[in-house]
Amino acid sequence: MTLEQLLAETQPALLQIKQQDLADISAAKDWQSKYRVLMQLAKKLPPVPEKMKQAHLLVKGCESRAWLMHYHDKAQDKHFFVLDSEARIVKGLMAIMLCLVNGMTSTELAKFDLCHKFDQLNLKPYLSQSRGNGLTAMAERIKACCPVK
Amino acid sequence: MPVFDVQQFRQQFAFFQQQPDWVYLDNAATMHKPQAVIDAVTQFYQQHNSNVHRGAHQLSQQATALFEHARTTVAHYLNAAHSEEIIFTSGATAALNQIAFGLMHTELKAGDRILLTQLEHHANIVPWQLHCQRHGVIIDVVPLTVERQLDMLAYEDLLALKPKVVSFSHISNVLGHIQPVAQMVALAKAAGAITVVDGAQGIVYQQPDMQLLDCDFYVFSGHKLYGPTGIGVLYGKSAWLERLTPIFAGGEMIDTVSFINTTFNKLPFRLEAGTPNIAGAIGLSAAINWLQKHNTEQIKNHKLLLLKDFYSGLNAIKAVDILSQPVHNAGIVALNVDGEHPSDVTALLNQQQIAVRGGQHCAMPLFSHLALPGAVRCSFAAYNTLDDVNRCLLALEQAVEILTA
């Protein structure tokens, strides 16, 4: 499998998350429902094949490992990502982040504020744990893909 | 024997009044402090604060007396032959680093062997490795049996290779399994090895007797014995402590200094460079004095009771894979939910205010042996109640339900 194929599989999942699941998760009435949605999101994102999980793609969280691949469409200046994580809750949270940033231009990506976005989605409590679960590290890695002007 | 009054015991910990909603089962990481310890530390700063061993004034002499009294308290608790055999360090990790550094410059030469075990904490692996690589010393590792116990037959075979040092933990920080320390020390000594016991988890399980155990070195951290963080103990037989090269230099550990040569102070000071953690030592001493007012057999039985209930509850939850054995267990249970990453389980427990640890617990070689990404570790202390056990079990059931939905 190539990165292009993986991106092609990831894009519809991200679109669905953005258009449908984000509303579900914000509206979830209790923590159990929120986590159930997160689990579903993790399942929607196609896994990165083991062979493609090279060492330089590894983003280390405290307790679980995650991998990030980046594609920059230079003609349109758009950034696309695929990612995977060993842990499902983290992968669900990362899927949310990914649906927000995928397709962003360098300028948009540089301005992206994860904290603010998660606050809007009623997901702020999950960010407080993100030092440990690697979500913050993933956000930093994504932003680092944006070329410095 | 009268029954252990857990509520009376628990009331001495202000933490549980401040955080009544939490179930704290991360005791193998650090324990809570009773009021007696908090008061001793506060009192020192409020009434006696001065530097030790150097002031010309009476205040310093008082602080010195308190600090040295703390050393005596620890020495008595460990039944050390002399109080100079107690070196205050910042913790078990610092103590192990001092031993590895100290021996590598004196006792260990290229081609020598040292013997560790598969289930050691990184603090009992990496300090050795750092120096072994530089000095050409070989590390051998005692493997585990299928029951995840140390393979004692392999241990004896490896001792036949005549290691200069044998270093192992009393209790596995991941599995909670109690190692046969007395037997292991005796066998290692018969093979002519220097013996090092990592008592980080063992110290709170059992009061160790240095003269009976007869190991050359024993280390532990104060914060895992109801004491403050940043204080630990390196016990060593005087003859061995004398031969350690100090890892830190400066301050009180000096006898004479010129730019040609420096001579070191006598024990214990030669291994305590800089201003020591005076308040920490006093806090640790207060923890020991406080603990000795309680019946340790009652505490042990109470923890066994918690463990028994926890195991029977766990056995009733489908999809839980228990890594720790219920017998010869010091109160630590490592587990996984089948097919799930431990961090998903700990996140769901955290959501329900159950404090446990997940991951590899600074024991990566153990997890690569087990071929697992990690485990969830529930570790119990005397102040935990049956209600804590039940709440953890209910939370775990809820986590399993969400994960397997």
Automatic annotation (TrEMBL), chain A:
Annotated InterPro entries: Fe-S_metab-assoc_dom
Pfam families: SufE
Origin superkingdom: Bacteria
The Fe-S metabolism associated domain, residue ranges: 24-144
Family: Belongs to the SufE family.
Protein name as annotated: SufE family protein
Organism of origin: Rheinheimera maricola
UniProtKB/TrEMBL annotation, chain B:
Family under the similarity heading: Belongs to the class-V pyridoxal-phosphate-dependent aminotransferase family. Csd subfamily.
Signal sequence extent: none
Cofactor: pyridoxal 5'-phosphate
EC number: 2.8.1.7
Catalytic reactions on record: (sulfur carrier)-H + L-cysteine = (sulfur carrier)-SH + L-alanine
InterPro entries xref list: Aminotrans_V_dom (IPR000192), Aminotrans_V_PyrdxlP_BS (IPR020578), Cys_dSase_SufS (IPR010970), PyrdxlP-dep_Trfase (IPR015424), PyrdxlP-dep_Trfase_major (IPR015421), PyrdxlP-dep_Trfase_small (IPR015422)
Record-given protein name: Cysteine desulfurase
CDD domains per UniProt: SufS_like
Highest taxon of source: Bacteria
Organism of derivation: Rheinheimera maricola
Described purpose of this protein according to its UniProt entry: Catalyzes the removal of elemental sulfur and selenium atoms from L-cysteine, L-cystine, L-selenocysteine, and L-selenocystine to produce L-alanine.
